[in-house]
Structures are given as C-alpha cells and as structure tokens.
Amino acid sequence: MRGLALHVSPLFLRLALGLVFLYAGWGKLLETMPVEGETAARLANAGFVKMPPRVTPAQPGGAPAENGQNGSADAGRMGVVVIPARQGGGGQSFTAADFPEPVEVSRRMNLVLSMLAAEERGQWPGFLASPTMLNVQSWAITIIEFVGGCLVLLGLLTRLWALGFAGAMVGALWLTQIGPAIAAAEPAFLGFLPPLPMADPAMWMRAWELMFFQFTLLCGSMALACLGAGGLSLDGLVFREKKRGVRVMQDE
C-alpha cells in the first residue's frame, strides 16, 4: 500500500495539473482574441498592439487632416488618404477612438492587461510594468504552463515545473482576486478576499468559483512539488537508474 501511495498518487496529480496547465498555455501560445476601444489603446500604449491602417478624407493636395503629411497622388485624386499602421510605445499615446474596430491579439495579452491594471492600482511594481518586463513575464507564464504541462504529464523535472505552477497561481490569485478585492469600493471579506454573498442563492457558489479553482491548483502544485513524480514517470526512471548506478559503484 505504501508503494501504491508513493507511485500512483503523484500520477493522478500530474494528470490533473498537466492537462489544466497545458490547456491554459495552449490558449495563450496559439490562440488570439479580439480587443478594441480602451483595451486596445492600453495595449498599444504599452507597445503590444500596432494601430491598423485606416482610410480618412484627404485635404486639398492629398494631405490627411490628422498629421499634415502629404498623401500619394492617387490617394489625393480619390479624395482619401491611407494612414499607415503605427506601433505603440515610444511615447505615443493612443485612445479608444483609434481602435473603433476589433484587432486580434494573442490571448497572452490577458496577462499583460492584468499586470497593467494592478500597476494602476499601485499593486504591481513599476519596474515590472515596463513593456519589456511585461513581455518577459507573460512569456514566462505561457512557457511554464505549456511546456510545464507537457513535461509534468510525462513526469520529467516534475518538482521544478510544479513550483512554477504554484508561482503562477500565486500571481493569478493576487492579480485577479486578492488585489482587486482590496482596491474595490465594496468592503473585502476579511479585508483581502472578494465579497462573500452568502445571502444570494444565485451567487454564493459562483462568486468564489474561480478563486477556489486557482487555490486548488496552487495546493495541488505544492503537493506535487513535495511528493515528486512517483515511480511511474521519466523522473522515476532516470533517478532510479542513477541510484542503481551509485549502488553498483559503492558495491565495487
């Protein structure tokens, strides 16, 4: 029974955590989402969205009213000027009016938006909210989820990836649950948790559903980091062979 607990229990943890984090990382790495208006402007001002080209009426001589640059001769004859795409950042300031139509961005940008919102609330260090650091952090979480999910399923470097999962969940709890609850106008439960609407039969479960899911992933990740991958894993195979080799050398 002891062997069953040591080898099979981690397998179930690896299966649950690996699939969840692989799924989450897959979406951030390979899929996109539409953003527009204020959301697109915030990403553009941080340098993550390029404002799409748009057609505007031309002034006499083919110059667009917005920037005073000369348009092409063809554009002038047609009465329109195509304003080329511009990349955000570098001191440029975009507004919601610059993005009347949705633009597609990586779903990884959800992480960037969460960190920008936390920085505006004073709950995220300013040096971590620079475009470079936002990019580094969002890519780090995406890699931890996608690559870590794959390798945890195989049971390779399991403790390392499990600690990465735990760190990602600590960040998620702070950015999406605890931080917003502290900053909200409505009093937080116990001073730092989202309000607990026990009197509302429609909301009492849903209100904390995401937070409980994140907390469960955090606890499961820490449990896996403590237990290790178990014998039914690449870690078990590699380190078992390594230990066997050490014993042979000692016997000799």
Mean of pLDDT: 83
Cα-based radius of gyration, to the nearest Å: 25 Å
Helix content, binned percent: 55-70%
Low-pLDDT segments = 65-88, 245-252
How many domains would you count in the coordinates? Answer: 2
Biggest sheet, open or closed, and with what strands and sense? 3 strands, antiparallel
Assembly annotation:
single chain
Shape: globular
Molecular structure report:
This protein is mainly α and 252 residues long. The chain has 2 domains: 1-31 and 107-231, no CATH class; 35-49 and 58-106, no CATH class. The protein is built from 9 helices and 7 strands. The protein has helices spanning 2-7, 9-30, 37-45, 73-78, 109-120, 131-154, 158-183, 209-227, 234-251, and strands at 32-35, 50-51, 54-59, 63-64, 80-83, 86-87, 103-106. The strands form 3 sheets. The protein has a 3-stranded antiparallel β-sheet with strand order 4-3-5. The chain has a two-stranded antiparallel sheet with strand order 1-7. Strands 2-6 form a two-stranded antiparallel sheet. α2 runs antiparallel to α6 and α6 packs across α7 (158-183). The longest helix is centred in the C-terminal third of the chain and has 26 residues, at 158-183. The two termini are 33 Å apart.
Short synopsis of the structure:
The protein has nine helices and seven strands, in the order ααβαβββαβββααααα. It has two domains: 1-31 and 107-231, no CATH class; 35-49 and 58-106, no CATH class.
